[in-house]
Specification:
Layout (H helix, E strand, L loop, with lengths): L9 E8 L4 H4 L6 H25 L4 E4 L1 H6 L1 H9 L3 E4 L12 H19 L5 E2 L8 H10 L3 E2 L9 E5 L2 E5 L8 H5 L1 E2 L3 E2 L4 H18 L2 E6 L1 H4 L2 H15 L4 E3 L2 H10 L1
Parallel strand pairs: 1-2, 1-10, 1-11, 2-3, 4-5, 5-7
Antiparallel strand pairs: 6-7, 8-9
Helix pairs in contact: 2-10, 5-6
The chain binds zinc ion.
GO molecular function: hydrolase activity, acting on carbon-nitrogen (but not peptide) bonds
Protein name: Polysaccharide deacetylase
InterPro entries: Glyco_hydro/deAcase_b/a-brl, NODB_dom, PgdA-like
Length: 263
């Protein structure tokens, strides 16, 4: 599974976490401004992203909290209609860590029900809200028959994440390949707004290294973050450049998982 793939270059998986307002639902103190920041991802971010993916003919995986699907059924159905993949990203975007098992189970079940009701999709992949997978949630994923998780970072190639008897295919992520640590900012949590070049340098550099090693790289983005005008313009230029590069191919996570399981 950790051997280089047959493709002589970088396999890029574009993934988008469609958090929208769900991140703010669980907070005790949150104002309309922060909530509207999440909503921007649906109103402006998603249409821009769908447009560029369509223009360049690129596949992507959208990890969607159940509440986002319930609030914005048309937007989520549009992702599916465009041929993109939906993954599970919790229901209320509640972190598993520190929650009783029953709550973790409810978060998983309600997320599944929402994606089924809204889009008729049973997702095969899971991404933990805030990337803090617990042993309990891992057990629930295995029991529910999920094919992969994409929340851990123990390798930079697809690998098997294990805890005791439990194991699942991992399509790994990393904070340096996520737009949130670079640009994420809100009134409560604070954060920083890094220079655009820092994000581009990390993303380009990792893809170049992945090409040299003939491995995959998962890029994580959020429509409300990368969908801002100047950031989106940079993403579009980067994707145009990569789409024209013979040493780069794009796969949805389900395709990467299928290749990893076949080796
Ligand atoms: Zn998220």
């Amino acid at each position: 599974m950790s051997r280089p793939g047959a493709f002589a270059g970088a396999t890029v998986c574009l993934t988008f976490d469609v958090d929208a307002e769900s991140v703010y639902d669980a907070r005790e103190r949150v104002g309309l401004s922060s909530v509207s920041h999440g909503r921007f991802g649906i109103v402006r971010g998603l249409p821009r992203l769908l447009g560029v993916l369509d223009r360049l003919g690129l596949p992507a995986t959208f990890y969607v909290p159940g509440m986002t699907a319930r609030r914005y059924p048309d937007a989520i159905r549009a992702l599916v209609a465009a041929g993109h993949e939906l993954g599970h990203h919790g229901h209320r975007h509640l972190e598993s860590l520190g929650r009783p098992l029953e709550q973790q189970a409810r978060e998983l079940d309600e997320g599944l029900a929402a994606l089924d009701d809204v889009a008729g999709v049973r997702p095969a992949g899971y991404r933990s809200p805030s990337w803090e997978l617990t042993a309990e949630t891992l057990g629930l994923l295995v029991d529910a028959g999920f094919a992969w998780d994409s929340s851990c970072m123990g390798d930079d190639r697809p690998y098997v994440e294990r805890h005791g008897e439990l194991e699942i295919l991992e399509l790994p992520v990393h904070w340096s390949l996520d737009d949130w640590p670079f640009f994420g900012f809100d009134a409560v949590a604070g954060g920083r707004i890094a220079a655009l070049g820092a994000w581009l340098e990390a993303t380009r550099g990792e893809i170049a290294h992945a090409a040299a090693e003939r491995r995959a790289v998962t890029i994580t983005m959020h429509p409300e973050v990368i969908g801002r005008g100047y950031r989106f313009a940079a993403l579009e230029r980067l994707l145009q450049e990569l789409a024209a590069d013979d040493a780069v191919r794009f796969l949805a996570h389900r395709q990467l998982a299928a290749e990893a399981l076949a080796t």
